[in-house]
Amino acid sequence: MERYYQPEIECASRETILGWQNERLVKQVRHVWDNVPYYRKKMEEKGVTPDDIKGVADLHKLPFLSKEDLRIAYPYGLLAEPLEKCVRIQSTSGTTGKRVVAFYTQHDIDLWEDCCARAIVAAGGTNKDVCQVSYGYGLFTGGPGLNGGSHKVGCLTIPTSSGNTERQIMFIMDLQATILCCTPSYAAYLGETMKEMGYTPDQIPLKAGIFGAEAWSEEMRRDIEKTLGIKAYDIYGLTETSGPGVSFECSEQTGMHINEDHFIAEIIDPETGEVLPEGEKGELVFTSITKEAFPLLRYRTRDICVLSRKKCSCGRTHVKMSKPMGRSDDMLIIKGVNVFPSQIETVLIQHGYSSNYQIIVDRVNHTDTLEVQVEMTPENFSDSLAKITEREKELVSGLKTMLGIGAKVKLVAPKTIQRSEGKAVRVIDKRKI
Ligand code: DLL
Questions:
Q1: CA–CA separation, 207 vs 249, rounded Å?
Q2: How far is the CA of 237 from the centre of ligand 1 (A)?
Q3: Distance, CA 324 to ligand 1 centroid (Å)?
Q4: Ordered structural domains, the chain, with CATH
Q5: What are the pLDDT digits (tens) for 195-244?
Q6: Which one of 78, 183, 346, 413 is most buried, counting C-beta atoms within 10 A?
Q7: Closest CA to 278 of 303, 310, 314, 246
Q8: What angle do CA 250, 256, 257 make, to 5 degrees?
Q9: 170-183, pLDDT tens digit by residue?
Q10: Has this prediction a pTM greater than 0.85?
Q11: Mutate which of 183, 236, 320 to test ligand 1's pocket (most atoms within 8 Å of Cβ)?
């Protein structure tokens, strides 16, 4: 039987949800106008005032915010509450050079943790569960978010953070952990290591995993489910809007319910900014309607996905987003063709390889080159050169069909590509260096 953390909210009627959104949006726009001069200027430039926003139908009148705005306004330019009301910051790793700092009041943290608790309960979590949180703790939102959600559900929480794989496994086995929260790439690595140590899925006490923070394919989900003997649930979020728990999967596993009592989602054409009708693929845009300290209006996530309001068998009524199909800024343009790393991963996994791969893009004599290095698995390992060449050719052809361009494929020995304890780095684009 499906269980909910906040059934009256998660299963509310569409009219009720829209009512909340209308009321909260009007209030939020006023709050931002009064307290965030940076955004007020943007509204003035567009000729919009809070009086023009009477509900969700007027949302499209508001200006967008982008990562560039966050960079310009860094660190305090988008803060909407006095410092004495703020109790925490979280931040992105800044690996792309654009560090994001988000602020929280105690109320913001409370609502964020509720969202994470909804995800844990949707994955079957109760106060009888032992929940191991192996997302990084610290500035990254993964650890703190799921930790708070796990407390709210009443699970016994094991805050291992990421890394130290042997210790992770020791705690899973000794404390009989039933729920694992980490990135899908780390879950795959934990599964691989446990298998090598001789554990079979029925010896592993875990029953569910809550994996997110990076793109992962359906094939990777099946792999992880098989090795760990669990049901693997997706969870999505971003630092700018709070962290994990903006949306989460239910038992149907056909998309993630967006917590619409806190966020209004839109899909836009990333080129023109035009709002697209339901069911069309485009860039996801969020408006936070309950956040006090860092309330972003029409924030462009760069994540490409599709929204669906189809009735869900789980009983939840909130809109569902598909798994992000990539980020508009992760998209590689190789020889003029748009390539998403997730397309390459799909081909590799369909051919029986694991998600241990690396994509290397370069430019030789003014022409783009694409090389995919992928590990052989212990099952399909071969040291016969003829066999390896034959398998590489199969992958070249599979990639050509999927992407429409030629790629070089190199099969490498198991365990030669570096494992990740957080978000995996899979693309090396030498053209930018
Ligand atoms: O990754 C928050 C998070 C932590 C989500 C733990 C889920 C679990 P950031 O570091 O700010 O925040 O990165 C946000 O990661 O815009 C997406 O591109 C990507 N992302 C997050 N969840 C998913 C997912 C956290 N389930 C960026 N599938 C987002 C695909 C995801 N991509």
A1: 15
A2: 5
A3: 9
A4: 7-328 (3.40.50.12780), 333-429 (3.30.300.30)
A5: 999 999 999 999 999 999 988 888 889 999 999 999 999 999 999 999 99
A6: 78
A7: 310
A8: 80
A9: 999 999 999 999 99
A10: yes
A11: 236
